[in-house]
Amino acid sequence: MPGEPTKSDRTDPALSQGTGTALPETKSSSSDDIAAFVAKARAMSLHAPGARGRLVFALDATMSRQPTWDMACALQADMFREAASLGSLDIRLVYYRGLNECRASAWISDSTHLASLMSKIDCRGGNTQIGKVLSEARREAVASGVRAVAFVGDAMEEKVDELCVKAGELGLLKVPVFMFQEGHDEPAEQAFREIARLTGGAWCRFDPGAAAQLRELLRAAAAYAAGGREALKRLSASESGAAKLLGQMK
Fold this sequence. Notes:
It is a single chain. The chain is of the alpha/beta class. It has a single domain, classed as 3-Layer(aba) Sandwich (Rossmann fold). The chain contains ten helices and seven strands. Helix 8 (186-199) links the parallel strand 6 (177-182) and strand 7 (202-206). Helix 6 packs parallel to helix 7 (160-172), helix 7 runs parallel beside helix 8 and helix 9 (211-236) crosses helix 10.
């Protein structure tokens, strides 16, 4: 990403190991901007037969997320295994934590590499930055193609209307966002449900520390990213997580 590195960029030992690039501040889009990126995205034929599936895997890495972060590290290989049975999958890890820190990795094509990156990241206290996640997904959707976004978090501390604008842009690009909520925070649920609705995605709750529930949800997101709706439909015959996603998608 452009811009001079901040002090935290230079000193973060995880970044020195290649865990990600700091994301810039986001701005609202004009109608001309939206028309331009929709036209470009439609021309790219992102879902052409044989194309590699691309999934933005976004995680809240603020302090309350440490148990789920550790769990996601252990479960992320299942996303690749599910995708391998359907075709292929590239994952771009995006996470936020601390004071205004949000980073994105390069596209990753194997679970070992992704696990190595995630193991170098520790959770830090701070506010949510879901808007940056949605903006990053939009940029990648236009630049290189994204089939879906899977987000795992438990809170929302931003302006809901601004998040909805960004979600609507992803909806125009036909990039569904799967919002996976840990716990029962009501403002988060309302925002997550609306983001999912506006993008044609789905919202699902999982219980704190429930590895089996999160595993099914991540496998379902990977199935969609790698093989589209038909792949998700086939998986839904045997896994409730996939059935929940499929039941909500437009």
